Amino acid sequence: MKKMKAVFSLILVIAMIGVFTGCSNNDDTNTTPSNQQQDNQQAQQPNNPQPNTPPANQGTNNLSGPVTISGSTSVEKVGVETAEEFMALNPNVVITYESIGSGGGITNGNERVTNIGATSRDLKSNEKEFGLVEKVIAYDGIAVITHPSNPVEGLTKEEVRKIYAGEITNWSEVGGKNESIMVVSREAGSGTRGAYEEIMNFELVSTATVAEGNGNVQSTVAGNPQAIGYVSFTYINDTIKPLNVDGYPPTVEDVLANRYTVARPFIYVYHEDNMNDAAKAYIEFVMGDGQKIVESLGGIPVN
Asked: Coiled-coil annotation: which residues (predicted)?
């Protein structure tokens, strides 16, 4: 009997040890994955989380959709070049630029025909009433140009005014050859023409040759030894001859120093409620890294 009690007691002790051992194993099994999970979660979370928004000079696949711009032919080169760079950084964005003149660009921006209107002149008093956002993206000088064979190196503002008003009609009157002057001007509504006429203070002579767009003025003057015209700085090349005005050359440095005073702003205009995310990001790009493109094209950066 005593032997049976001893055996039973031994069996009971062994059973209890098994139970406690099993509980201990179960606890280890339950807690180990939890600790690993916490470690994994901590490993996946950086110490200093960064925002999802990319730097201004980088693109993002999050931007998509069309952005439409229309307006000044003078702003076109800056608009197209900055758009191409922005689209390269943001391949899901498509930006188009329609060259229709400053007046048309302001109208399209106001009437929401395009997201952005481009103008190369300040808005008139009645246009100010549209409530458009005006963003100056660059400054541009206007170069007075002749054919490369013309011996005249420079003119005063007063001489330019008299030529365009029809008061001076022969190159010999300003130190040139005894040849009649062919006056070439931009079309009505052109921002370049509006700025040029305002700066030079003249009413265009009725016999002037009117050419539409900077490119056409450039090519017209390049093809006529007696011609005089005016174009944006960005259209100066070796097919034409830019003249000094009041003794100073048409350069960025001289505009910034306020020595060459035939200059005007490049402006993007728009309504905030007509700007999608891509359009807003494009404007930010133009005002940031896009200023390097402005400078590379001969324009004057705003910062």
From this structure: none
